[in-house]
Structures are given as C-alpha cells and as structure tokens.
Amino acid sequence: MPECAEGEKQNKIDLSSYVQYSTMNALNEVGCLPIMVPIPKHAIDRVYATSDACMLNHFDQIRALAQEWERDFAASDEAKPWTNVRFGLRDKRPETKRNKDKKFYLQFCREYGDWVIKNRATQLASIPELEHLFHQLLDIEKVCENIFLEKLTEMSVLHPGIRKLFYWYNGEQRVPISIRVISYENEGHFSVSPHFDKSAATILLPSDDKPDEECLIVAPADGTPFNHENLKGIIRPKPHNPDSESCSLFITGAMLQEIGVSIPPTPHAVLPHDRLLRHVLVAFCNVPYMDTKHFTTSIVYKKIIPNDFIERFK
Question: What is the CATH number of the domain that holds 80?
C-alpha cells in the first residue's frame, strides 16, 4: 500500500497512486478504485442544484406523480428485469423508529426514464425542473454504463460468472443500472451506517463534500470479518482536466457473491456532515431478474460504534 503523504493522518488514504492499479488489487487493498470519468464536477453540482429545485419546491407534486408512474411502470414489459426494484421518490425521514438514515432520494434507471418520457411526457413537462433532471440522469447513466461494462468485462476474465449481469434492452447488451440522487439531512451521527451495497458493483460520483472533508469512509474489500477500525477516509485524486472530468470511485456490492462470483463487497459508511443537506449521486449495477427483498446488507447499526471513532476524522 502506498505510504501516506507527510503529515497526512493515518485514518485517511490518498488514492492518487491507486488510479494505476488493477481493479482487483485496488479493491483488495483499499476497497475502491478511483476512476476519472468524463463528467466534470460542475456538471454533477448542476444535478444537485436541479434535484434541490425539484424536491424543495415541488416535493408533494412529484411524490404524487412518482407514485402513479411507479405503479404503471412496474406493470410494463420494460420493468421485467428489475423484479422488485421500484423507481421514483423515496422519503426515509418520517420514520418514528430511527433505524433508517434521514434521507430522501430519486431512484432512476434508463428503462424508467425512457418509459416516463414516452408515456407521461405531458405530466413530466408540467415540472420543467424534473424533466431537466431526467435528461441529466440519462446522460450520466450512459457514462456509468460504459464504465461498468469496461470494469466488469475486465473482472470477468477471472470471474466468468459476472456475465450473469448482462441482459438485452432495445437490441443492446448492457447491465441494469439504477441511479440515486440522494439528499441526507444532518442527524449528528453517521449519515449512513456501515454497510455493503445491495448491488453487484457501484460507482460513487463526487458528492458535494469539500475535497478535504470527504464524509465517505471505506475498508478493504478483502473478505475479512468487519472491523470498524479498518474504515478509512479517502482523498480523491485531482483530475488533470477538471473542466471535462472528475474522480469517481468503483466499489463492489454484496450481489456478486449471491450469483457465485467470489469477489467480496466493499464495507463503507458516511460520516456526519454539518450542512442542511448533503448530496450524493450513486450508480448501482444490479443483477437482472433477481428478487432482492430478503437480502440485508447492513453490517452494524451506526450508534453501536463509539462516538470517539467519529471524532478522529475531524
């Protein structure tokens, strides 16, 4: 593992050296592979601004439309590869028993976006901010698809079972990608408990954290028993061309092992933030036609971890 830079805390890892690593080696050593994606940070920030314009100004209207679209899309042929995955607006804040993170998000995929634009165009156009967000997410989904196809094809040389992730849509072989634009409220503890993703793989695009105050912490995807002491903060490499690219992180999820691929998932969590909302854009590579209702990917409830663990990252 590359040594920490002079003066760098041992609880943070500068990922600059890992850009050149193979996917499997980076996952095994630090839990993630940094990738320069052809989406500049200012374009991702515009997605967060569009999301706020939707959710802060039209929340109830969007929720009502999304409930209708979710029901009708779920009955369509386009939704068949998604089995029990549902798309639209999710609000986890009202829970009285606080076992969920305080967040709300739009869950999106290409089939859902195409279906709404084709079948509910007038309703979508009634909220111009939401229509704009749909097109932003379709553009980002295409970029993420290319990354997933490249990395999964690379990994399938040693793990041919990864081919189970591929399916056909509109005459194109692809993998099922769901996208979430997530807004986390400040709740004074972990924003997200330590967990594995309920996916085969995940791309974590840049959040709106300050570069030197990233809230994400990760542990190696080496299959060893979870120990919160292995979670480290990350420092993303700076892009050479910030006007045209930004740094995302590729991690693995728990569904690979469910389809017989012996690649461990990446343990990760999100530290507290001090803003009204923290935004993050995440792309998940799913398993087509798999029912995942019975899977639990939480590792440990966040309040079990002592507060002094959080303090060391400040």
Answer: 2.60.120
- The reply to whether 47 falls in a domain is yes
Q: What is the pLDDT of residues 147-174, one digit of tens each?
A: 999 999 999 999 999 999 999 999 999 9
CA angle, 244 then 108 then 283, to 5°: 50
Partnered with residue 283 across adjacent β-strands are 179, 203
Q: Are the CB atoms for 49 and 136 separated by under 8 Å? A: no
Going from the C-alpha of 72 to that of each of 14, 44, 97, 135, 236, the distances in angstroms are 46, 30, 31, 20, 40
Q: What is the pLDDT of residues 71-108, one digit of tens each?
A: 999 999 999 999 989 999 988 876 645 455 688 899 99
Task: Evaluate whether residue 81 is within a structural domain.
Answer: yes
Examine residue 126 and state whether it is found in any structural domain, yes or no: yes
Domain count within the chain = 1
- Strand 232-235 to strand 12-14: parallel, antiparallel, or no bridges (unpaired)? parallel
Task: Give pTM, 2 decimals.
Answer: 0.93
Query: Is the Cβ–Cβ distance between 162 and 252 less than 8 Å?
Result: no
- In a domain? residue 245: no
